[in-house]
TrEMBL record:
A Pfam family: APH_6_hur
A GO BP entry: secondary metabolic process
Record-linked SUPFAM superfamilies: Protein kinase-like (PK-like) (SSF56112)
This protein's name: Phosphotransferase
InterPro entries: Kinase-like_dom_sf, NH2Glyco/OHUrea_AB-resist_kin
Keyword entries, A-Z: Transferase
GO molecular function, one term: phosphotransferase activity, alcohol group as acceptor
Length: 285
């Protein structure tokens, strides 16, 4: 989408929702975000997607709305390619971890997950199944120069994903990307945002958080930390830590396959994948 089209859409949304003082915040692969001022004088975040399908966040806003009152951002408006969220003051859990308080950040993430999954909810919008989310993983092609250990770990993680998908318990709505940098600690507690909107095994919910926080590569790759945090996350969700460990390896492999864009040559998370696969194979709890 061209800059002019994006600008025109922004102006239209500002008028429609009576918003002013748009200040650009950031840009992702599928959306741009602005801090805006509402008619009542309060700040909010406007997220404008490049198209109305919203990519892999298609049902995220509906899920966050269904979780209203729990540890999530409040969705103020939601229409087509535009979404308006409350402004959250406070550091992200990733920022807390990067400031030297990683264990506190992990515990707050657990508190967030417990809030989201305290009891079942129903969501009107169709949520993406984990089967669909992982459909590209087994289709990955490996370059002849792809290191043998990476290929071996990817195949092991793919086998784990296939087993997990075939043995899922009753599916539940999932944030789908619940990690430290998608949660902000406000004066009223942690609030999650940027949900994918998945449906599936509850043990998947914190699997991706083992790849985080970003900016702490040595911490994330510490095998003792991986083992202890997996147990902590599993306890918070009330799921077997072996399944969570396997989902962590499977999700790391899926992220690698997304970046490979069909042909895997090498990846910066190859060493992390190896550690997660090792833990998943060793975990028996």
């Amino acid at each position: 989408m061209s800059r002019n089209v994006m600008t025109d859409d922004l102006n239209t949304v500002l008028v429609r929702w009576q918003l002013t003082q748009a200040e650009h915040l950031s840009q992702t692969a599928i959306a741009r975000l602005w801090r805006v001022r509402r008619a009542d004088g309060t700040s909010a975040v406007l997220k404008l997607y490049k198209n109305a399908t919203r990519g892999n966040e298609a049902a995220g806003a509906e899920l966050l709305s269904a979780w209203s009152g729990r540890a999530v951002v409040k969705i103020l408006e939601n229409d087509g390619a535009a979404m308006l969220m409350q402004w959250l003051d406070g550091p992200s859990l990733g920022d807390i971890a990067r400031s030297g308080h990683a264990k506190q950040a992990d515990q707050l993430l657990c508190d967030t997950a417990r809030s989201l999954h305290q009891n079942p909810i129903s969501v009107r919008a169709p949520l993406c199944s984990l089967d669909d989310a992982f459909s590209l993983l087994p289709q990955l092609t490996y370059s002849t120069t792809c290191p043998t250990p990476l290929r071996k770990d990817m195949l092991r993680a793919t086998a784990m994903a296939n087993h997990l998908l075939a043995t899922q318990p009753s599916p539940v709505p999932l944030h789908g990307d619940l990690h430290h940098d998608n949660v902000i600690l406000t004066v009223t507690g942690p609030k999650a945002f940027d949900a994918k909107g998945y449906m599936g095994d509850p043990a998947f919910e914190l699997a991706n958080a083992l790849r985080h926080p970003k900016g702490l590569p040595s911490h994330v790759r510490d095998l003792t930390r991986i083992t202890q945090t997996t147990q902590l996350f599993a306890q918070a969700l009330g799921v077997p830590c072996q399944r969570l460990a396997q989902w962590a390896a499977a999700k790391c492999a899926l992220s690698i396959s997304w970046r490979a864009n069909g042909l895997l040559i090498q990846d910066d998370e190859a060493d992390l994948l190896s550690l997660l696969v090792e833990q998943a194979l060793a975990t028996e709890c």
